[in-house]
Amino acid sequence: MPDFRLLAEKIGEGKVLLDLADRVLYRYDAITSGEVPLAVVLPESTADVVEIMRFAAAAGTPVFPRGAASGLSGGSVPTEPGIVVSFTRMTGLELEPEKRLAVVGPGVVTLEVSRAAAPYGLYFPPDPASYRQSTIGGNLAENAGGPQCFKKGVTGDYVEQVEWVDAAGQVHVSGRRAYDLPGLLIGSEGTLGLITRAWLRLEPLPRYTRTLMADFDEVGQAAEAVSRAVAAGVVAAKLEFMDGACVRAVEEAFSFGLPAGTGALLLADTDGDDADVVAEELELLAEAARASGGRVRLAADAAEAERLWLARRSVSPALGRIKPFRMNEDIVVPRSRLAEVVREIRRLGDASGLPLVQFGHIGDGNLHPNILYDKQTPLEAVHELAEQIALTALRHEGVLSGEHGIGLTKKPFMKAAVPPEQLRNLDLVKRALDPSGLLNPGKIIPDEAKANI
Ligand SMILES: Cc1cc2nc3c(=O)[nH]c(=O)nc-3n(C[C@H](O)[C@H](O)[C@H](O)COP(=O)(O)OP(=O)(O)OC[C@H]3O[C@@H](n4cnc5c(N)ncnc54)[C@H](O)[C@@H]3O)c2cc1C
Fold first, then answer.
1. Number of structural domains in the chain
2. 87 Cβ below 6 A of ligand 1
3. From the CB of 62, is ligand 1 less than 6 Å away?
4. Residue 120 sits in the same domain as residue 197
5. pLDDT tens digit string along 301-343?
6. Would you state the pLDDT for residue 260?
7. What is the pTM for the complete model shown?
8. Please, which residues have CB within 8 angstroms of residue 447's CB and are 6 or more apart in sequence?
9. Residue 36 belongs to what domain range?
10. Which of 32, 90, 134 to mutate to test the pocket of ligand 1 (most atoms within 8 A of CB)?
């Protein structure tokens, strides 16, 4: 057991939590739980992170980075007793509006970046549905996506430079030229380095935004509308989907006025600086929806649009009222296969007898089939259905994760998804940057696939 008093002397007593009652709270993320950590540390500066990492390296104790723990793949949960490094106190936020840049600490809550930039007519486009809770550190580590990423790109597309601390406690400031080290850290789920600051690119706010809702009798029709719209060249600002069960759950919980009897809903925005183009793109979307059997309603004003988007962001909390636990899948499939895949997953859910709902960033081909369960549900049945969903995505030339990461929950499927030589390459990169395996061990790469070197 490391002597944490030595660490507390270096960084300050109030930054090291050792009481069991405190530590237990840090074994969870939004989907699963792990070991109770030996200590939780709350750095307030890069210098603190350096001390923590040097202490951990000297003691040979694993480190588990953590943002808001809104992750949905077990990325921040400890796999063995170690140190949880919670970045929530590193909330520095400086704007350089003339350069359209925000320089932020990892603990800054995602939405705060856009809030701070709004007076300058700027915003930070990546908008995970969790943006009121998730942090920039977690967003970079997972390369988070969100509704706006269909048109604007994902978190990694907005990162110019990253400050990070390596496994030996050395600080680096890395730009995107030459070896593009930020590119390596983004999406590495806390396994290669600790992100302590990020330089984020901001975009001018669009002048016009229009919102549309289309409801369908059946999930496959909604997916067909998306394939049709994309084939017609529509570039929506957002293009999201909820199946009928999600809509009913949201309505029962929050009463937003969605059509409760629907089989599936599409929600879409178009945006830009030319009002006519924005309206034309919306009409193209409406045509695609109608051609697939959809009933289209345009939001009358910004307040109605905001209510519809709040309904979409409320899916996860609403599902929590049906069953306390859920297995949240995050597959991505080619848009041309969407209709086939959502129907196939619906059939898998029905055959399993478990409650299964689907929603997601359908414009990106990113679907979130969720299996809902409770303590009485046999876990084997849940895992079997999750595996069938993962294999369905792979069979349709898709991938295991669009944005939530591999972490622990998708790790069992990595061998089916990634050829052995590529898994070995991942492991070689991991060993090059973290030779002692201290950073977030036990995640992403299945043990049996690790390189024998
Ligand atoms: C209701 C709900 C809706 C969601 N919607 C979306 C969505 O639309 N899109 C999306 O992409 N995700 C979504 N998520 C998942 C989650 O919010 C994202 O993965 C988010 O990026 C996690 O941020 P966090 O701060 O909570 O990170 P955590 O969950 O704490 O950690 C996530 C990963 O980042 C690592 N990490 C955290 N901070 C650092 C750091 N400073 N340095 C290195 N590694 C670090 C952790 O080790 C872990 O592997 C949703 C989650 C919920 C609960």
1. 5
2. yes
3. no
4. yes
5. 999 999 999 999 999 999 999 999 999 999 999 999 999 999 9
6. 82
7. 0.95
8. none
9. 4-86
10. 134
